[in-house]
Amino acid sequence: LAMNLQGSFEAAQEMYLVYHSAIREIRTKFEILDDEFKIQWQRNPIEYMKARVKSPKSLLDKLARRGFEVSVSSARENLNDIAGIRVVCSFVEDIYTLAEMLIRQDDIRLIQRKDYIQNPKPNGYRSLHLVVEVPVFFSNHCEPTRVEVQIRTIAMDFWASLEHQLRYKGVDKVPPSVSRDLKECADVIAATDQKMQQIHNILNGTD
Ligand code: 0O2
């Protein structure tokens, strides 16, 4: 790791500590919102969360692919997704509610917002992506640290996992018919998400 990242072992170790800690900060914020929501509305909007810090190999590949210097400081400067957390929600409206609640917090700085639900990718991918900066406090200093937050419904997550497997797990060339079918599934899923939201709103008297 130390050799690969062309920095000291300590620098790489410290980098992983910072990003792991930033994920813990963001995860706790969502857990608190989820708990409060349960008290107010008798249900949890978050089904589950998954977090990861990018592996050294993915970091190196990405830096090289984008033509950046391959070093710890370059990774910290140029990459927004070293730390990533995926928040999987029950309903589409939960996504926006949670995103706004996070962004409104005083210690959170919004760096980037990409709404792939309003504007799905051509392949059908849907999710709300935020890059936020959160302060992480250590013994004698504070590190503002960027975390990529992907917020999506269970249905969107289901689709994205399969599509991700196809793209990254050895399927070299996806036949056009498969891409079409996947896009169709994404659209069906989006329509189902909308219907589920309507049903939920009717049952809760908010429609
Ligand atoms: P992994 O293995 O999930 O980490 P950026 O990486 O932010 O500099 P970009 O393209 O602007 O570059 O980021 P964007 O569009 O916000 O998407 C980044 C991440 O979103 C991806 O990370 C995926 O996790 C997810 N994503 C984006 N598009 C798709 C898609 O079409 N299908 C699926 N399944 N996931 C998608 P990585 O690093 O590609 O992968």
TrEMBL record:
Top-level taxon of origin: Bacteria
Question: Any idea where the RelA/SpoT domain is?
Answer: 51-174
**GO BP: any one term:** guanosine tetraphosphate metabolic process
Report the protein name in the record.
GTP pyrophosphokinase family protein
Classification via InterPro entries: GTP_Pyrophosphokinase, NT_sf, RelA_SpoT
Q: In which pathway does it act?
A: Purine metabolism; ppGpp biosynthesis; ppGpp from GTP: step 1/2
Instruction: Return the Gene3D superfamilies for the record.
Output: Beta Polymerase, domain 2, Nucleotidyltransferase
An example of a Pfam family matching this protein is RelA_SpoT
